[in-house]
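Entry for the shared binder. Reason: the reviewer on the internal report wants the predicted structure included alongside the sequence.
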Amino acid sequence: MNPLNPFAESARVVAVALNPALDQTIEVAGLQPGAVNRALRMQVDVGGKAVNVASCLSDFGVNAAVAGQLGRDNAALFEELFQRKKIANHCCYLDGLTRVNTKLVDTVSGETTDLNMPGPEFDPAAAADLLQQVLERLGRLVERTASWVVLSGSLPPGLPANIYATITARVQAAGVSVLLDTSGVPLKAALAAGPKIVKPNRHELAELLDRPLDSLASVVTAGRELLHASPAPEWVVVSLGGDGALFLTREHAVQAQSLPVAVTSTVGAGDAMVAGLVAARLEDLSLTETAQLATAFAAAKLTRLGPHLPRPAEVRALAGQVVVSAID
């Protein structure tokens, strides 16, 4: 057990980081592929989807923990973030480096180009050992104060595609809710374990159902298919980029419009929305209020480099500006 756990007793949300990363963000004015580009500035942030979720929750005042794996050789930046934001560190330390992803932000076009590394490669024995350790640590956290577990992000090579399904089944059997945010085969496998909330984007949902989702109506229909599967999530949230996001339960569906904000970086906006979803469920907000708060989290993150939010009062003020409309 890593010693950096002074905040474990109060963690209400655990984010599972099976493939964390350091995000190296480089700003370029007018990216020209194949040419020499002069960078304006560079910033290195602790990242990976689960770590981003925990970081945003902490900024909002929600006590969070991270369980998963870190490379021992470059763990210092993660440890500094966890200590500064009072995030309980329950990660397993592995030999080698945590992967480093590169984000190229074009300040002229506003576009971000991601170069993401796959992560460390696990053989079957190492994969089984990591899963066992993560389950043990989650078990201890669930016995204390955690009421939500967030499973988000890709899997490194060698981890079984059903690992999120295994964790979901174990955690929810203990009475704790799971929010799932992944894609591809791990998403399909984990849905069979019945997570409480699923948050794909439009592309991920289309890939899951193996058909194009070219209209809002088709996305709503697809989301409702998930809600009537067996087992079925209680909520499906589909992010639509510039078109906002859909929030669906079995009874209702609403669309939240994106807020017009000055975009500094789009990296981690989806993770911020996941954090906002969990924060809203902890407050037992209505569907419309949840849509507003989750959208505000994403908008607030767009104004920052790295997995950070402004003060909670500013985020709540943004939530009050989010336009939400009901869908028949």
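Summary line for the report: Residues 124-144 form the longest helix (21 residues).
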